[in-house]
Design brief:
The complex is a heterodimer. By secondary structure, chain A is α/β, with parallel strands linked by helices. Chain A has a single domain, classed as STAS domain (Transcription Regulator spoIIAA). Chain A is built from five helices and five strands; from the N terminus they run ββαβαβαβαα. Chain A has a five-stranded mixed beta sheet. In chain A, strand 1 (12-15) and strand 2 (18-22) form a beta hairpin. By secondary structure, chain B is an alpha+beta fold. Chain B contains eight helices and five strands. A five-stranded antiparallel beta sheet of chain B has the order 1-2-3-5-4, covered by helices on one side. In chain B, strand 4 and strand 5 (209-217) form a beta hairpin. Residues 80-88 of chain B have low confidence and may be disordered. Classes of the chains: A alpha/beta, B alpha+beta. Chains A and B meet through helix 2 and helix 3 of A and helix 5, helix 6 and helix 8 of B.
Chain lengths: 133, 219
């Protein structure tokens, strides 16, 4: 499979004041780590206010992947960027709940569109009750 | 290795990893009860149907999917006749050595569930459980294997055994408790797996390593 090669990276797209990451594949641990590094570097380099991680194409979310996504959100927040996870498959969401996992501290949205709307609203409304970092 | 089998494998390998290709093939053979090297009239269709399910599940790219299916169709409709031979119950062993094996193991688990007719939600639960078990092997034991077996008795379902010869789990009660926090996950890998499955059995000691056996039933 082409996407399994060692050099493949998940693309990060800058759109106006946001970074958009769309995960459309089964995530290996290597890809997760690489993505975490790449997002952090990009946030540092470009001037953005929001990060959207779209997970509509992800195959499963186990404890490692959930933890990593949550970490990405928390790292971004510490750097002054709000994160929204979008497109979580309902069946994957059910599985997360049954396992006792959650993405505490990271907002979520039904799809990419609502994620953008969420980020475009006033920060006070979208950040929830204060920082939970 | 014989011809048709090998040719099918080559077609599949063009659009998925080798181990997935082998699994798709062996499951398709098991489910269709057709031996590709002993194709009889009518058999080809049954095998094709099963192969196509696997291709649809694993080849996301539309164009690639179409090419793969076309190649498969032309291969199987040209090839011969004679009689099918019975095939053993499907059991798949996936060696788990590196982190990319984790992705393969859960993908194969999902495929088996799909073939068994599990609902989408159940497929994801089993795949997630396999992912947790495989990751534990890579992380704590270095190497081991995942054995996926179809349960065809009174209750249809799937059994997953994760086996390694690693250092074992020192304090099972702690790992399964709410207090536990691991380095990498959220400390709920095994607890979560137990919650997702219908049966969960853990054996571990420093001499023999760890064996975790889980089952999920269709009903």
């Amino acid at each position: 499979m082409a996407e399994r090669s060692d050099t493949f990276r998940i693309p990060i797209i800058k759109l106006h004041d946001k970074l958009i990451v769309s995960i459309q594949m089964a995530l290996s641990d290597r890809l997760v780590m690489q993505l975490k590094d790449d997002i952090t570097t990009r946030i540092e380099r470009v001037n953005i206010t929001g990060l959207i991680i779209d997970v509509s194409g992800i195959d499963v979310m186990d404890s490692y992947i959930s933890r990593a996504l949550r970490d990405m959100g928390l790292i971004a927040r510490l750097m002054g960027v709000r994160t929204v996870i979008s497109g979580l498959d309902p069946m994957i969401a059910m599985t997360l709940v049954e396992m006792g996992l959650d993405l505490k501290g990271v907002s979520s949205a039904l799809n990419l569109e609502t994620a953008i709307e969420l980020l475009d609203r006033k920060p006070a409304k979208t950040r929830g009750k204060g920082g939970t970092v | 290795m014989n011809d048709t089998r090998q040719q099918i494998l080559e077609i599949l390998s063009g659009s998925m990893s080798d181990i997935l290709a082998r699994s798709v093939l062996s499951l398709s053979i098991s489910w269709s009860k057709v031996d590709p090297n002993n194709l009889r009239h009518g058999d080809d269709k049954r095998l094709l149907v099963e192969l196509e399910k696997g291709i649809r599940l694993y080849v996301r790219d539309d164009a690639l999917q179409r090419t793969c299916m076309e190649q498969m169709q032309s291969l199987l409709t040209i090839n011969g006749h004679t009689r099918p031979s019975p095939v053993a119950e499907p059991q798949i062993r996936v060696p788990v050595l590196t982190e990319s094996d984790i992705v393969d193991a859960r993908g194969i688990g999902r495929l088996v569930c799909n073939k068994l007719g599990f609902s989408g939600a159940m497929q994801i639960k089993v795949a997630t459980a396999i992912s947790e078990l495989a990751r534990n092997i890579v992380q704590y034991a270095g190497k081991g294997e995942i054995i996926i077996t179809t349960l065809d008795g009174n209750r249809r379902g799937i059994e997953v055994v994760a086996r390694d010869e690693g250092p074992g789990i020192a304090d099972i009660d702690l790992v399964m408790s709410d207090r536990y926090n691991s380095r990498t996950g959220m400390g709920i890998g095994l607890k979560g797996t137990r919650n997702l499955m219908d049966e969960f059995d853990l054996k571990s000691n420093p001499d023999n390593g760890t064996e975790i056996r889980v089952r999920k039933y269709m009903d």
